User: Fold this.
Amino acid sequence: MLLEVEGSLRLFGGLERLFERLREGLGAMELTAQLAVAPVARAALWRARGHGARLEEVPLAALSLEPEVFEFLKSIGLSKVGGLIALPRDGLARRCGQALLDDLDRALGTVPEAREYFTPPPRFAAKLELPAEVSRAEGLLFAARRLLVQLEGLLAARHAGVRAFTLTLLQSKASTVVEVRLASPAREAQRLGQLLREKLATLSLSCPVEAIRLEAGDFSPLHARTAGMFGDALAEDESWGRLAERLQARLGPDAVYGLATHPDHRPEYSWRRVEPGEWDPREFRHPGPRPLWLLQAPRPMREDDLQLLAGPERIECGWWDGDEARRDYFIVRFADSSLGWVYREAGAWFLHGLFA
Amino acid sequence: MAALEDILQRHRVWRGGASFSRAAAVPSGFAVLDGELPGGGWPTGGLTEILGLQQGIGELRLLLPALAALTTAGRRVVWLAPPHLPYAPALAAGGVDLARLAVVRAPGRRDSLWAAEQALRSGACHALLAWFRNARYAELRRLALAAEGSCALVALFRPREAARESSPACLRIALEPAQGELALRILKRRGASPAAAALRVPLKNPLHALGRSASPLPALRDARARRSLGLPVHA
Assistant:
């Protein structure tokens, strides 16, 4: 990997600091690397392959030369780049080809070398073989963190975040897919790891996992946050979003919902489950007296159990969608003094709500 | 001195006698109740237990004014594991901004305790209404600690029998129906001794909206009308 660093040295506080941060990042991903720096890209590449030696000291074996060229240079007693530089140029071109001479010129910086800039891919997929089979969720989380750190790096390079990612657990005979969804785009490995932990906690593994694969696509733009501008409300919205996604990760996507009113006269259709926050109060029309609890399903009851206090309120509606209601609603008091909302339809009585 | 004041304000310290500490609170909307509650309203940063035998006696109407005030001020309210469907038209009619209300379903006791703690620790939830089937003292204690770190009003709806167990709640009240009104007994309040007499709380009655009195309609067979229905208790 080649980095153009001259333009960023001041930003990172000098070459040594930059090296330090690179080593740190590589360490977090558990990658081993050889770092080398040079005025031109080719020389840096050769130096790195030569384990950081000075350019002249880099062994020829590190240059990935054509085998016959390498054998020839070895036969005339050359083993390092320095020897190559000292050879007469036209002789070298004749015996080993112009390509070697061109490479040498690029390494010395006498001929410019055009390279295309690397564009990070718009999706992420990485696999990690586990050093030993893992059958506990915590062990998987530890391994997955390493991949999440890589994902975070890619996302940072693209100024992006993800709204979802999947972790595939590869077992000897099967594989299990763990899907994590987020309320808002994010990239920090720590936050992604926290959600993954909740998901893994609900999982029971039938057989041990040998490898894991992390995949994410659909990056959405995410810029570094500038704090303070809108103060607490924004911070609270953010922590609410995180709470909702944490609850959903463990309890399921349908476990958190908001309520909205809906313009329909039938009580069971005059409300909706929505995403929390999606309610337009302008749509709301004040109904008659309504109970704070609605039963999941109307419960049949005997007429002689009821002490009617108010009613009837006739609700006749829904003939157009096949779920017709022709009901008379009453407010009733039960023997234990609680207040209920009951209706009569086709001669039968049903309890539909409680004035809690 | 400032540190002492701080400790007293966070009402970890129980002060005997009639003097109320200046505990943080959300006005309940009922003057008769606010007058009896330390801080002048529902306590925040501590647990409030609402103990009742029956459902449908006004247990939610009791909290409705506070929920309306919180949500219209932009505060988020979470209902955790409610026993029935919280009915949106009735909540909206009661002045609650539904856009600030979220319902969380949690099947088991452990999941709902976990969810309650998450909600309180998030800092994004200003009122938590939770229905627990049964909870052990240690679990409630954990919840009380989470509540202390929050600024939320935490109302736990529990069966009447729970009154016999000790509890880390800073406010415990028992509800009973009383001739169309709600009788409320303060079993425990931090910062003052339990109230001697039951309070009559003038809840908004659904019949008031119709302009009717609470007397039965005439044309009914009231001879058979008073049999028990076996309605669900706080299970």
